[in-house]
Amino acid sequence: MKLESSDTVRALLVFTNHAQYPTKTHKTGLWLSEATHFMEEMDKRKIAMDFVSPLGGAVPIDEKSLDLKDATNRHYYEDTAFRAKLNATFKPTEIKAKNYQIIYFTGGHGTMWDFPENAQIQAITRQIYENDGMVAAVCHGVAGLLNTKLSDGSYLIDKKRITGFSNWEEKIVGLEDEVPFLLQDKLIERGAEYHKAILPFVRYIKVDERLVTGQNPQSVRKVGKKVIEEMFDK
Predict the structure, then answer these.
(1) Is-catalytic flag, 170?
(2) Hey, which CATH number is domain 10-232, 3.20.110.10, 1.10.760.10, 3.30.390.10, 3.40.50.880?
(3) Which of 40, 41, 139, 169 is catalytic?
């Protein structure tokens, strides 16, 4: 799928509304760089972006992800327009899938609670994919693809080469007993062909036709670049 211009391309970014761990006192939510690094790649091609979340409204940011030494994080976090959009995301019912050629699921542990069961976002994803659009996700955001079915009733990720936050990485960060499920295991359950890097927390992505997934926060920029390459440079 090659496009000559980004004038008609619009991306829909999906965010979590969930901030609470079952027992941890610190808050979860969006992992900031999993939005900002992707957005920077879209902005380079002047691709317009809209924000949606399961409930609409404000998106919590995981306090451990507020790394403002990261120049990209700082650029967006200090941008009042970005912060305003993050505090007033669209509800899924306000979104028309036909207006988007890209859907991207941002990560953060919060996504594990409110992404998998949202039927409205699943329907948006299906429509974008079946209209020859790109579907992308990174880290825990890949949970948003677990229950998405195509029009023929099959799971979107069935038999697809895919990655996402690994069991090993979840154990390293000490949250394997906090999350409602282990993403790697659930992806395999759904019939996906799961892949991961040899080492944890290194950049790693998988591409299967119009599906691009990244394993961890280190992979976000590569996911963004690959989405652009698939849309414009092939």
Answers:
(1) yes
(2) 3.40.50.880
(3) 139
